[in-house]
Specification:
Shape: globular
Number of helices: 22
Number of strands: 35
Distance between the termini: 40 Å
């Protein structure tokens, strides 16, 4: 590790990559290649920061050239060539690589074509025993080929939707890749989602096939799901087939197909060559103001964006092992599976993040030989508080990067990771805090292997991403808090929302505040050094452990209880990196918030939604404040709970009963 002298006004980096790491980095090699062939700026000798800044500026100013160069450098296989890179830059509505055809799954299985790699693990599956179980590239390719053939026999055609109610297991990866191979559209929910949450999502897209487990294991316990699956089958009348995966060993229900029978064939894979903008999957927003948004991203857009993120920003390739703690209900699962695109081994962990103890994820990183280990900021802070010592207690010598997302990593988290490894002699531990969103299934800012790391900061905006902080008047600001905006299209931006034929909901979601410019809903600061600080959500979306959740889901469930007249749920980022999610309840006349009602509220939320939706506290309030048009006020209440004075948090004239807000202001002051 080297630390360059800094001017007095510039904070000292926590970590600076050594010259060898900079020279080996894929982004360094790409810059040299693109400079020679496509006119990219050459690297500045001895100054990686200036080199990256110039490359980033070029990647935004010369957007078409950058993506053309990157597609060539990363070996994207176009079955039919493209006419141009970007036919229309409009947002929304950008048209990427018109005329081109390709297939995501074909790229994900490329390593299986190399005889030298065919027997290496493509996947390492880990459960709560923490013992890795490999799936080789050859076996993954064979299972995908067999299942894709079975889907075609079931009548699944390009554009049909295929759904998974599955944990983070190899079956989910096989089902997704087989769906993509056919040209169908994948969508998934984790099995800790209750039936209502799943149906709110899947009913929108009308799947023809459902892959499901009989249950899952979490926290040392088995959680049976056959009843929920029966509800899903009833609530999804478009299903032609249900595929049963007996994770707990139960027999298939009547009319369901057996997984093993569908992946038993030994056939060559057939990959449907689809247009660049053909839908790959549907992800879902939190559903804060109603049903979750069904976000559709394209085969080509995700392929290019994930290749860029994983190779240039995460510095991953053959020989790497990529582990990120996630579930199939979070976009990080989709991002993790894309590790196959760059030939990395993907580590799938199905289980509790803290079982049998808080150090569980570090133990998995050790036992799988992870080279990039990703987790949540909340987990890092939990380890710090629990006195976990990963650098001392585990052999993590293969880990070259610890990455975090889901919420901003607090300064103490940066220091803790650095100190834990530095004290054990691992001075070259790169800490990458990254930030993006389900909406693009990628990062706007984060990891750059050639740049220094400053405490509390993301290293830089990502290549090809015109990231800026704007004030309320739409002017860029540096060194000040502003709205996170993206001024140019990204290939992975949604091609549309499902059931939004005029694009109205899509435009309202990102382009209403600044027409033609993507406004994401985060507060950020771009520092004069080019790094990025994330301050949290500028809207009221709940974001717990990296999973965005909808307040509307919680209201719908809680207010079924006769004792609850109305409720209000708020997610509050804490200064120490924690996340406080209180539920405020306005009780019906005669009701009491006793232990029995508290238990019923929490049990109802857990059973109908998921354990993540259960609030940290349930607090009785005299009433819930509304706007003059009757909408619950969430953002101003969040600001009050974070300590913002009442006069700065809300315009009292916009509230039906401004006196109610004083309760929340006082609570925020106390906390």
């Amino acid at each position: 590790m080297t630390t360059a002298p800094q001017p007095a006004e510039t904070p000292e980096p926590l970590w600076t990559p050594g010259a060898d790491r900079v020279a080996r980095a894929r982004v360094t090699r790409f810059q040299a290649w693109a400079a020679e062939r496509h006119g990219a700026p050459a690297a500045v000798p001895g100054d990686p920061a200036a080199s990256y800044a110039a490359l980033h500026r070029w990647s935004v100013d010369e957007l078409e050239t950058f993506w053309q160069a990157f597609a060539e450098w990363s070996g994207v296989r176009f079955a039919h060539p493209y006419e141009r890179v970007l036919a229309d830059r409009s947002m929304p509505g950008a048209t990427w690589f018109p005329g081109a055809t390709l297939n995501y799954a074909a790229h994900a299985l490329r390593a299986a074509e190399d005889p030298a790699r065919a027997g290496e693990p493509a996947l390492l599956a880990v459960d709560e025993t923490h013992e890795p179980s490999p799936v080789t590239w050859t076996e993954l390719r064979r299972q995908v080929a067999s299942l894709a053939a079975a889907l075609r026999r079931l009548g699944v055609r390009p554009g049909d939707r295929v759904s998974g109610y599955l944990p983070n297991i190899p079956h989910a990866v096989v089902a997704f890749l087989a769906t993509a191979a056919v040209g169908a559209v994948w969508t998934s929910c984790a099995p800790d989602f209750g039936a209502r949450s799943v149906l709110d999502r899947f009913q929108q897209v009308e799947p023809v096939v459902l892959f499901t487990v009989d249950g899952y294991r979490y926290g040392g316990k088995e959680h049976e799901r056959t009843g929920t699956v029966a509800e899903l089958r009833t609530g999804l009348p478009t299903l032609r087939a249900v595929v049963h995966i007996p994770l707990l060993g139960t027999p298939a229900p009547e009319g369901a197909l057996e997984w093993d029978a569908l992946v038993a064939e030994d056939v060559e894979p057939v990959f449907e060559e689809v247009p660049f903008d053909h839908p790959l999957w549907v992800l879902y927003s939190s559903g804060t103001t109603g049903l979750p948004k069904a976000i559709v991203q394209s085969q080509g857009g995700i392929l290019l964006e994930h290749l860029k993120q994983l190779s240039l920003h995460c510095d991953l390739g053959p020989g790497d092992r990529f582990f990120w703690y996630t579930s199939t209900g979070w976009m990080m699962w989709n991002f993790l599976v894309s590790g196959l695109l760059v030939g990395s081994t993907v580590v799938l962990y199905d289980g509790s993040p803290g079982h049998p103890d808080t150090a569980a994820q570090w133990r998995i990183a050790e036992r799988t030989g992870a080279t990039l280990y990703g987790t949540s900021a909340a987990y890092v802070m939990a380890c710090r508080k629990a006195g976990v010592h990963p650098g001392r207690d585990f052999d993590l010598s293969r880990v070259k990067c610890v990455a975090t997302t889901g919420s901003p990593l607090p300064p103490d988290g940066f220091r803790w990771i650095h100190d834990e490894f530095h004290e054990e002699g691992a001075e070259d531990m790169w800490i990458a805090s990254v930030s993006g969103g389900t909406d693009v299934c990628s990062c706007f800012a984060g990891a750059v292997p050639t740049l220094p790391v400053h405490i509390g900061e993301l290293q830089a905006p990502c290549l090809g991403t015109g990231l800026q902080a704007w004030d309320p008047h739409g002017k860029p600001v540096v060194g000040e808090v502003g709205e996170l905006v993206v001024t140019n299209p990204m290939p992975s931006m949604p091609i549309h929302f499902w059931n939004d034929p005029e694009g109205t909901r899509y435009r309202e979601s990102y382009f209403e505040m600044f027409p033609g410019v993507w406004r994401h809903g985060d507060w950020i600061t771009l520092t004069p050094r080019g790094s990025v600080v994330i301050h949290g959500r500028s809207d009221s979306t709940l974001n717990r452990q990296g999973v965005r959740m909808g307040s509307a889901d919680i209201y719908e469930v809680v207010e079924r209880l006769p004792e609850i007249r109305e409720s209000l749920v708020i997610g509050v980022e804490q200064p120490d990196g924690g996340y406080w999610m209180p539920l405020f309840v306005h009780l019906a006349p005669g009701a009491r918030l006793d232990d029995a009602l508290l238990d019923r509220i929490k049990r109802t939320i857990r059973e109908n939604l998921s354990p993540r939706h259960v609030p940290d506290e349930v607090i009785e309030v005299p009433a819930v404040p509304h706007t003059l048009t009757g909408k619950r006020i969430e953002v101003p209440v969040k600001r009050l709970l974070q300590g913002t004075p009442l006069e700065k948090a809300v315009n009292p004239g916009s509230v039906d009963n401004a006196d109610l807000l004083k309760f929340y202001e006082e609570l925020g002051r106390k906390r």
